[in-house]
Amino acid sequence: MRILSYIDPGTGAMLFSIIIGVASALLFLIQKLKLKLKFLFSGGKIHSENGGKKIPYLIYAETKRYWNLFGPILDEFERRGVDVVYWTQSEDDPVFAKKYEHVKAEFIGEGNKAFTRLNFADATVLLATTPNLDVYQWKRSKNVDYYVHIYHACGKHILYRMFALDFYDAVLLTGELQRPYIRQLEEMRNLPEKELVKVGSPILDGMAARFEAERGAEETRNDGDVRVLLAPSWGASSLLMKYKDALIDALIATGFTVTIRPHPQSFTSDKEEIDRLMAKYPDGEKLTWNRDNDNFDVLKRSDVMISDFSGVILDFSLIFDKPVLYSAGELDTSVYDAAWFDKEEAVDLYKKLGLEITEADFPSLGDKIRGALTDESLSDARREVRDLAWTNRGCAASSVVDYLTEKNKELADEASAKKTGGAKSAKK
Questions:
Q1: In the chain, is it the N or the C terminus that has fewer CB atoms within a 10 Å radius of its CB?
Q2: Cα(324)–Cα(306) distance, integer angstroms
Q3: CATH class of domain segment(s) 52-201+394-419
Q4: In the CATH hierarchy, which fold is given to the domain comprising 208-389?
Q5: Does residue 124 surpass a pLDDT of 80?
Q6: What pLDDT score does 162 carry?
Q7: Phi and psi torsions of 254, nearest 5°
Q8: What is the mean pLDDT of residues 110-137?
Q9: Does pTM top 0.85 for this prediction?
Q10: Domain extents for the chain?
Q11: What's the distance, Cα to Cα, between the start and end of the chain in Å?
């Protein structure tokens, strides 16, 4: 008898992600074993970081793009006179231009070289914004006591790749918005509860302070001139990769001034197509491409944003209080944590903040943009989302360092108690 079996696309993608994760883990395990054998046969040993002492606070940045997140935190450590170690995968990270006394910054290489350092890290607390710890190449080090994730955007992490935060010990939230999704995934996957602490957003705090300082210094604008920013996410489901030439042609046809800012990851993951589009649609009077490391200026000078499911929608809406149009109707959630939820959960924030567009709207895109600019209900929605997604405004960096120092003391006290208890048992 012939037996037919069926696996739905979501489950299939989930299994595929698990298989890829296991394969990556095995490959890295082999690499790790080779490294250990090399040290043993050479008569050496795996070196210990920080001169043989455990690093109290270790911050890891996978790219200099996250300087607007980690910079304020490092500044706060410096202000308090507390030593902290900062590892970065960017050789030109802005940290190296700073004259810190209490921040020890180091370029740890890229790719597997960086992961090897991370997997042998020796620290009490490690703070990072990189998801998928212990899923792919980056493994938990047995010498790191506590892994803490900090959000670099104010949205829901369910649009991170699957299993994004599962193996962190704690997550620092920007607002109450994120808590229920973490708890639901823990329950669905039978995971232990992580420590969840609301600290706010150092990134939004910095942008808000900068915006307030520059208020009133806006350049003179021509009547009727509308500046549109296309700022999509990356990958096959992203707006730019999905519609490509058709979308750019529709934007040009509006007669508005258009800036296209691809997600930085697109220049790696979607490089061939991005190169083709940039060659076909070169910079001109009405269309430009933006690759600034700091997105503040391009967000500030834009009147309206068109995006998909990118977290930059929240930066634009909550700081600059401007409208967005979004397109996520064909979003494939199968590779994201969103696959565990109703698809509506992945896009409900964007539906609240903006007007949805589809390819059918391209011929009237100019009218849709004008409609977004005059829709007052969107302004009310921005206030509502701001309160839910961004709390503790203006105090995030201080709150992060408060938490890290308290956690470090708590872990040190626990280690001391275990050591003392062990010594007493040995005497008996």
A1: N
A2: 6
A3: alpha beta
A4: Rossmann fold (3.40.50)
A5: yes
A6: 92
A7: -70, -25
A8: 95
A9: no
A10: 52-201+394-419, 208-389
A11: 68
